[in-house]
Amino acid sequence: LIKLMQIWNCNIQNTAAVIHVSGYEGRDVNVSCSYGEGYESYEKYLCRNDCGNSDVLITTTKAKKNKYSIYDDKKRRVFTTTLSDLSSVDAGKYWCGVTRTGKDIYTEVRLFVCICQLGDLSGGGPH
Ligand SMILES: *[C@@H]1O[C@H](CO)[C@@H](O)[C@H](O)[C@H]1NC(C)=O
């Protein structure tokens, strides 16, 4: 059946402002992050793990890179990163960032990848 790659931590979910996103292996997933008024023209990005320079996956300055694309909806103040062709290695911790002078603004994101095994959807189970 569907196997979550990471254990959902209910405590984290309820106490911190962490965005949880899940998608299926081989499919696309959208990671949407909102930001405050006044940041419409700032650069936005998505990064992994500790968000060091080599962890930045994509920025709105270069909207398409490898399996990532990013779109900033300035009217709704939401920027969305699409990760295509998900695989289990994509599961983990990400950050949505807004580049600004001083400390950037970060929102933590946890991505879960669900594995859908071949045959599960074709009715092989009990009737
Ligand atoms: C991701 O967002 C784009 C643009 O809004 C949409 O076309 C696409 O269907 C979305 N994909 C998923 C998996 O939700």
TrEMBL record:
One of its GO terms (cellular component) is plasma membrane. Transmembrane segments: none annotated. The lineage of its organism: Eukaryota, Metazoa, Chordata, Craniata, Vertebrata. It is found in: Membrane. Residues 21-104 form the Immunoglobulin V-set domain. Its main location: membrane. PANTHER family: CMRF35-LIKE MOLECULE 3-RELATED, POLYMERIC-IMMUNOGLOBULIN RECEPTOR. It comes from Lates calcarifer. It holds the Pfam family V-set. Coiled coil: none annotated. Keywords: Membrane, Transmembrane. This is Immunoglobulin V-set domain-containing protein. GO terms for molecular function: transmembrane signaling receptor activity.
